[in-house]
Each structure stands twice: as C-alpha cells, then as structure tokens.
Amino acid sequence: MRPTTPNATTLFEDDALIVLAKPAGVPTANAPRGTASIFTLVQQALPRGSFLGVVSRLDAPVSGVLVFAKTRAAAADLSRQFRERSVTKEYEAVVEGRFPAPLATWVEWHDLIDRHDGETGSAGETAGEAAARAAHVRARVVRRAGEISHVELEPSTGRRHQLRLQLANRGCPIVGDRKYGARLPFAEGIALHARRLTIAHPTTGSTMRLEAPLPKAWHSRFPSLFSARAQGERNPENQKRPRSEG
C-alpha cells in the first residue's frame, strides 16, 4: 500500500496489519459525511472488499503512530492487547505553563475523567462508575524554554482526550489546544504526538516497537526545544529512565 496522503507515511505493513504515521488535522475514523478520515483513505487503497479494523485511535489534531488490522483475527488480538494494557504508548507534547514536577523527574497521575458525548458505559457499572473512568499516566518534563516545555507521557489507559485533560487540569495545556485553555497557537493541530507504540505482532507474537518521528513543523515552531543545539544541551543523565515502582 502507498502512503494515503502526501503527509501520511506507511511505517509497516504485512498481511495482518498496517501502521501509519498519522498527520495532524485528519480524524482516525467516523468523520462527517464528505470528510476524509485515515480509515477511509486506507480503505480506498486496499482491494475492494478487504477487511480493515480500527484498533487504535488518535484525535484529529494529534499526529503519530496509528495501527489498523487487516484481518478479523488480528483485530481481535490487537484489541485484546489494548484492553489488557499490555501495549506501551509513548507520547511527546509541548505545553504551556509550569509543569508540576522537577526537570527530568517522572511523576504518576491517577485521575478520574468524565465521559464525553458518545462514550458508553459497560454492563454492570453503577451510575458513579459510568460518569467517570480512571486515567493513568507517567509524565516528565525534559526541557523548558520560557513559557513552554517539552513533555514526555506514557499513558497506561486510553480515555478520550485523556492527556489533553490531565495536562490542562494541572495548569499546562498543550500548545494549540484551545478547547482546553491553551493561549499559544499551533498551525499543525495541537502539539501532541504519539511517538512510539510497542505491541506484540498479532500473528507471530514478536515485539514490535513502532515509531513516528516528530513532524518537521515542531522543529521550526519550537527551535528552543527541538533544534540540534537544544537537543545537545540536554544532560545525558536526564535520559535515564527510572525503573517503574508499580
């Protein structure tokens, strides 16, 4: 399969799955009539009647790694991995305000996120459980520059708008995310990128570490955070990832 748009790059494809680097500004699926989505664009590039399953989603203004299944068996296995939280998701963001932790220090946030329109509860949930869902993430700030910061995030849950809400609720909304209080503009959607996704291949079981490089627009928009000089100034000690305590 060829890239579906000039900005959507195929990172991996075989008989079981397709992995893309999604550009910001295009919904994953379920777009309004007459509007393209990544799902419809991929579907059009496949032979007529081919199965295509949505197993991961990114908000329309978010860029990064996106996975689709090409068989029902692969869709079931990948959905199970996400449901059981055996996948590893790594995001990068540029945020406003003061990140509530020292530089390079991992923190864990455990919140309850209210359901959004279109989300439904599971059978057997009480009224209180149906109103909100647990949202867990590890986060750290890796570099600050004036009123913005480069943040890395590792969510273990996948609630709708989870990272956007959790950051905004701590006074550091994602740049460009006007919905959640950001003041600074960002022409390329919002400054949130799904950088890496680690899954088990649904057929072979082998570990796959899938990565989508940061969009070029990030380097030009945030040179104080992502220029070669800025990256070189980062302390190598800050790159050491502490062992999780849970």
Specify Rg, calculated over alpha carbons. 18 Å
The average pLDDT value, as a whole number, equals 86
Strand content: 25-35%
Structural class call reads: alpha+beta
Helix-strand pattern: EEHEEHEEHEEHEEHHH
* C-alpha geometry: globular
Uncertain runs = 1-6, 117-129, 235-246
State the total count of DSSP E strands: 10
- CATH top level? Alpha Beta
Distinct helical segment count? 7
Q: CATH superfamily membership, which one?
A: Pseudouridine synthase
Q: How far is it from the N-terminal to the C-terminal residue, by CA? A: 41 Å
Residue share in helix: 10-25%
Main sheet overview: 10 strands, mixed
- Domains (count): 1
Instruction: Using the 3D structure, state the CATH architecture.
Output: 2-Layer Sandwich
CATH topology: Pseudouridine synthase
Key features?
single chain, 246 residues, Pseudouridine synthase, ten-stranded mixed beta sheet, 19% helix, globular, disordered N terminus, disordered C terminus
Description:
The protein has helices at residues 38-45, 72-83, 127-131, 162-168, 216-221, 223-226, 228-232; strands spanning 9-13, 17-22, 53-54, 63-69, 88-96, 107-114, 132-145, 148-155, 192-200, 207-211. Strands 1, 2, 3, 4, 5, 6, 7, 8, 9 and 10 form a ten-stranded mixed sheet that branches. It is globular, with a radius of gyration of 18 Å. The protein contains seven helices and ten strands. The longest helix has 12 residues, at 72-83. Helix content is 19%, strand content 30%. The protein has a single domain (9-234), classed as Pseudouridine synthase, CATH 3.30.2350.10. It has 246 residues and is of the alpha+beta class.
